[in-house]
Amino acid sequence: MSEECTHDCSTCSQNCGEREPESLLKEPHGLTHVKKVIAVVSGKGGVGKTLVTSLLAVEMKRRGLSVGVMDADVTGPSVPKVFGLTERATGDEAGIFPVETKTGIKVISMNLLLDNASDPVVWRGPMIGGVVDQFWTDVIWGDLDFLFIDMPPGTGDVPLTVFQSIPVSGIVVVTSPQELASLIVGKAVNMAKMMNIPILALVENMAYFKCPDCGREYPIFGESRLAESAKKFGIGETAQVPIDPKLAAACDAGLIELFDGTWLSGVADTLEK
Q1: If residue 184 lies in a helix (H) or strand (E), which one and from where to where?
Q2: Which of 147, 164, 142 is nearest to 155 (CA)?
Q3: How far apart are CA 255 and CA 83, in angstroms?
Q4: Strand partners, 95
Q5: Quick one: how far is CA 152 from the chain centroid?
Q6: In 29-175, at which residue ranges do the beta strands (DSSP E only) sit?
């Protein structure tokens, strides 16, 4: 600290130990008021983040809460498909308006901004991160109890942008029974810890297949390591989502809001608390 220090860091160019780190959080749109932001993450792709995000959003909406979903997987967006959304998002000089699902869940996704949903987004990291920032700063979310963010896999540009720019209340980690996925998910957990973001729940997708005839559960991808992983990372709330052809069919048909499943009720209780 300089001997002439005035204790007013805003007027000082010195890089001393007393200087508080500058916050990188971005202000949301002026017409946006979100109580809780929940990011759904994993260390690798293909484990079911979009499925878990959608199921949690539907569960919270059924509880009478106002809900939004931000599809932060800019190069591989799939949230609109799960909810059966085909119309494009609109906007004016005030901002961008998210598209609402049949039950009133507000959604923004890159696929809702493209002329053709099958067009590839061939962009470098900084541009993709800028789009995610705009999903927070330029989209008029209105009053939401929960905003769920469907994250891309890994610990790259977009997860870092989200954790630094958006006031994330906590994360839900998605994994699968395979040992490789369980190991890789540790990277996402450790990144959240580095960013001081609470880890609220661990969800194991594709945990088992339940025979419709005898009711027996078969661990298709190996024995569950959910309890072991939760203990290792100090995560209290856990849940398992089975392999269910009816659930897959509902996602393909864009009818996730009509599907009944209670697997994530405990996670929803934790988020609500």
Answers
A1: helix 179-194
A2: 164
A3: 6
A4: 92
A5: 8
A6: 33-41, 67-71, 90-92, 95-97, 99-100, 106-108, 143-150, 170-175
Question: For the whole model, what pTM was predicted?
Answer: 0.88
Residue labelled with tokens 């810890």: 193
- Is 49 within 8 Å of 174 (Cβ atoms)? yes
pLDDT in tens, 42-86: 888 888 999 999 999 999 999 999 999 999 998 888 999 999 999
Average pLDDT over residues 211-240: 89
- Nearest Cα neighbor of 205 from 76, 63, 53 is 53
Percent of the chain with pLDDT over 90: 57
Dist CA 159 CA 218 (whole Å):
34
CA geometry: angle 151, 181, 249, nearest 5 deg = 65
Instruction: Say which DSSP state 89 is in.
Output: P
* Cα dihedral across residues 102, 106, 110, 115: positive or negative: positive
Burial class of residue 139 in the structure, from the number of CB atoms within 10 Å of its CB (0-12 exposed, 13-18 middle, 19+ buried): buried
CB 257 within 8 A of CB 101: yes
